[in-house]
Amino acid sequence: MFTINENYKAFSKIIISDYPYKINHYFADKYVIKLFTQIYNDLLKQHSKIRDKFYSHGNKGFLDLAFMDHFLILSYRLSFLFSKEKKYTELANAIFYSSRLRTGCNIFYKVNINKYFYPIHPFATIISPHAKYGKGLQIYHNVTIGHYTLEDPVRSAFSDIPKKRAKLKIGDWVIIFANTTVMGNCVIGDNVILGVGTKIINKNVPSNTTVMTTENGKTIFMPNKNNNKKKFFKL
Question: What pTM, to 2 d.p., does this model score?
Answer without folding.
Answer: 0.92
